[in-house]
Amino acid sequence: MKFVFLNMLSIVLLGTGNVAHHLFDALILNHDIHIKQVYGRNDKSLTYFSKRCKITSNPNTIEEADLYIIAVSDDAVSEVSEILHDKKGIVTHTSGTITKEVIQNKRKGIFYPLQTFTKDKKVDFSSIPICIEANNEKDLKTIVKLAKSISTKVYEVSSSQREKLHLAAVFVNNFTNHMYSIGNTICKKEGLSFDMLRPLVTETINKIQFLPPKKAQTGPAKRNDVQTMQKHLTILENPIHKKIYQLISESIKEENEEEL
Question: What would the mean pLDDT of 38-66 be, rounded to a whole number?
Answer without folding.
Answer: 94
